Each structure stands twice: as C-alpha cells, then as structure tokens.
From TrEMBL:
Zn(2+) binds at residues 163, 167, 173. GO terms for cellular component: extracellular region. Its cofactor is Zn(2+). This is Zinc metalloproteinase. It is found in: Secreted. PROSITE patterns: ASTACIN, CUB, EGF_1.
Length: 485
C-alpha cells in the first residue's frame, strides 16, 4: 500500500515525537520477524487474496470515502472463516519435542479459558499445520484446506504462540480496531519506509461492541513495531500511563478470552446470570461468571483471593490515605467511594523488576468506567500526577514473583478543595521517572509541575539530595518543552 497517504490525518497536534531514554525490549513476534516483513501483513499475518482485497478496500474507503466492495464480515471474522464445532484440527510438521511442547502450552492457554478445542488432525480437510518457518506468523481464521502457523526461531515464547493462535482463531491485531485513534497515536515520522500499511485500521472488526479497546490484549503491537529508529516509538498510548501495558506477550487478557468466547462459545450457557462489570457466563461452568482481572465471585462482585497479608476493600474519605505494599505475590485491592463520588489518587512509587512492557511484575490500576480493559501498568517508572477515577471504584492490584514488589498510592474522595496531601517520603520514585524522559503526551508533565511544584518547594528534603538543583532541572526541562511547540 502506498506510503504517501497519511495514515492518521488528525493525529496528535501539539507534541513532536521525542526520543525515549529507556531501552525497550520487544517481547512480541515482531522482533523475530524482521527478515520476513515483506512477505507478511502487519508483521505476522498471511492473508488470503480476499482478505487482502478487503484490507485494500478499507484503505481506499478511508482515503476516498467510497466503497465498491460489499463487506461480508461482521464479526472479527465472518462465519465462513470460523472453525467448525469449536474444534481446530492440527498437525506438527516437525518432530522436535520441545518445540511441540511449546505449541501445546500455547494451545493450553486458549483451551483453559474458552470452549475451543485443538485436536490432532484426523480426516478433516481444514487444519493448521504448525511449522518451524522463518519467523512467527499465521493465517487469520479458517481459510480452507491446510493452512500454516509458523513458530520459528525467535518465537520461543508461550505468549507469542498464543498470539499466533489468536490469528488462527480469527483475530486481527488490537490496534487495527476502528476505534483505535481514541486510544493510541501512530508516530508516522518513525515508521520504516514503505511499511505504513501495517498500521491500517479495519472497518470490518465490529459486532463486538461489548468489548472495549484493550491495551493489554495479547494481540496488541508493542511500542516499536516497524520503527526505523530504536530511539523512537511508533505507537504511543494517548494516556501515556498505558505505554508500559502494550506489547505484552505473557498471557491472554480478559478481552482476548471474552472475544473468543463470544465468537465460538456464545450458545453454550442457556441460562443467563447477571454478571457485573462486563463479566459473562463461564462456558466451562454456566453457573459462574468469568470476571475481568481484579474481580471475582459468582457475579464478579468481589475481589480475588490475595496472597496472605495484602489486598482488601479500602474506603476513600475526605482525608488523604496511603496504600503501601511490599508483599510479593498477587494482591488485590478495591478503593471505594460513596455513590456518585470520584476518587482522586496518585501513584507515588512503583518499584518492580524493570521491563518496557510490564507483563510479569507490576502494579496495575483500573480507574476508568470500564473494568474489562487492562489497567495501566507500572513496574519501574511510576507515572506521576493526580488521577481522577471515572466511577466510584478503583481496582488496584500487584503481581510479583520476585523482589522488589513495592508501591505507594495515596487517595482521597475527589472534591474542589482538596486538603494538601501529606508529605511523601522523599525517595525519588515519581521524580526520577520524569528525568527518565517519560514526559507525558497527555499533559501530565505540565499538570504535575503546576500543581506539585509549590508543594515540593515547601517540603523539607534531606540536604544531600540537593532538592533545588533537582527542581531547577525540572523547571528548565519544562520550559524547553513548551518552547519547542
Ligand atoms: Zn500478529
């Protein structure tokens, strides 16, 4: 597709792309596929002629505003591309036991959470052949006859296998959803020449209005897909707090699983139970709901069980309170406010093992009006600045299998006249991340300075940290960033 046509005409207006100052480790299939990018679509999909024509048609429609081709697919893939009887026959092309085991583990991820079943091919005409190709790629949906899913060198992650199986089941990439421009910016300045087509949106991914855009989907690109310069990202989340949520290849997200269950397992539970927060009847046990991460109970009304010594229900009041955790394991909290009230909170610190996509050890916070979406994750770069919840609850959870696993949040019921926050222990968490170059693309940086600077100046800091020098840097960085606009 032509690279001359701008992809997102109304992309962000006021922020020039800035180099990042941290190193991104790409855990996605893209990293393994650099050699085969000319042969696959969006880095890892092998499309049929019809699928490619649809993509081109979407592209033309967007540029010219007209469509000549009748769109046939309504869901993620149309009925004709779905696997029959929820069963996906497959065959291994290679005898390597370890490699087969890896693929079985990826299969296990989908089978554990959905009604889909993968089985060794018998007489079926349509099936997947797993091969060790020159990268990681797959067809999308059931295309008829033998189709390939390649798990080649560099693809040795269960999450990558689960991603490729996602394509085989019928999923496109998360960032090609038609509503993606509300959530991410595509940084066209740094997309590798001639590869812009890989960032096209698709029109025909619809019919799943119950499932929100999910930064934590295993089908979402990482921040540097198709970049021409590793100092720059090609995908920036509009709310920069989600920048470390995208690109995870650790596990299926709640929405990945829900979409598969909607597509294939919708008719299994006949009795309807009223699941809350976007939960839905579990096809493995129709008397219980499958709940968004951070919620549990028969109807998703309660919290999952936490590791001993952490987690629980918290209640915001008109006085600042602090939540500090140092316990490793899985901890689930919910901050509650009275009906119609909002919670004002700040992440002061988050110290977990560093990773550009916080997928294994992290603090996750869900503060929007839709708990189905993966929350923003922080592992070693606490995003400073106040946040106001979109409903009267905030879900907070932390997951860590190794030290360190500590974070600090302070919270209060939101109001026009907030009392001044308590002095935070001066350990530099929030501040250092500013100097790490992670200035927000959503004005968080500015908000933070304007609101926090007077308070910071008042605080007593230990002399050896030279607070004034630090603030000087802060101020000059701020001025420089406004001058370049
Ligand atoms: Zn993919």
């Amino acid at each position: 597709m032509s690279e001359k046509v701008p992809l997102t005409p109304k992309r962000r207006s006021n922020f020039p792309s800035q180099p990042i100052k941290y190193r991104i480790v790409d855990h996605t299939e893209y990293a393994a596929n650099k050699k085969i990018l000319n042969e696959v679509f969006e880095s890892d999909m092998v499309l049929t002629r019809d699928q490619m024509l649809d993509v081109i048609e979407d592209f033309k429609t967007r540029i010219n505003g007209t469509s000549h081709r009748r769109r046939r697919r309504k869901a993620i893939v149309g009925n004709n591309l779905r696997w029959i009887n929820r069963t996906i026959p497959y065959e291994f092309k290679d005898k390597d036991n370890k490699w087969q085991e890896l693929i079985r583990n990826g299969i296990q991820k989908w089978e554990a959470e959905t009604c889909l079943r993968f089985k060794t091919k018998g007489l079926e005409k349509d099936y997947i052949e797993f091969l060790k190709g020159g990268g990681c790629y797959s067809s999308v949906g059931r295309i008829g006859g033998r189709q390939y899913t390649s798990i080649g060198f560099g693809c040795e992650g269960v999450g990558i296998v689960a991603h490729e199986l996602g394509h085989a089941i019928g999923f496109w990439h998360e960032q090609s959803r038609p509503d993606r421009d509300k959530y991410i910016n595509i940084n066209e300045d740094h997309i590798y020449r001639g590869t812009k087509g890989n960032f096209e949106k698709r029109k025909d991914i619809e019919g799943l209005k119950d499932v929100p855009y999910d930064f934590g989907s295993i089908m979402h690109y990482g921040p540097q897909a198709f970049t021409d310069d590793y100092k720059y990202t090609t995908i920036e989340t509009k709310d920069h707090r989600y920048q470390h949520t995208i690109g995870q290849r650790q596990d299926l997200s709640f929405t990945d699983i829900k979409q598969a269950n909607l597509l294939y397992c919708n008719d299994i539970c006949k009795n309807q139970i009223s699941c809350q927060y976007g939960g839905y009847p579990n096809p493995h046990d129709c008397t219980k709901c499958k709940c968004p991460a951070g919620l549990a109970g028969v109807l998703c009304e309660s919290l999952p069980i936490s590791t001993f010594g952490c987690g629980g229900e918290l209640f915001a009041t008109a006085v600042w309170q602090t939540l500090t955790n140092t316990i490793e394991g899985e901890c689930f909290w919910r901050i509650n406010a009275p009906t119609n009230q909002r919670i004002h909170f700040e992440v002061l610190e988050a110290n977990f093992e560093c990773d550009s996509s916080c997928a294994e050890n992290y603090l996750e916070i869900k503060h929007t009006d839709n708990f189905q979406r993966t929350g923003f994750r922080q592992c070693c770069n606490a995003a400073p600045g106040p946040i106001i919840s979109q409903q009267n609850q905030v879900l907070v959870f932390s997951r860590s299998s190794k030290p360190s696993a500590n974070f600090t949040i302070r919270y209060i019921i939101d109001s026009e006249n907030l009392p001044p926050p308590p002095l935070a222990a001066w350990r530099g968490g929030g501040f250092t991340s500013l100097f790490g170059g992670e200035t927000g693309i959503d004005n968080t940086f500015e908000t933070y300075i304007i609101k926090e600077l007077p308070k910071a100046l008042k605080n007593d800091r230990p002399a050896d940290r030279k607070p004034l020098d630090t603030l000087q840097t802060l101020i000059s960085t701020f001025l420089r960033s406004t001058r370049t606009r």
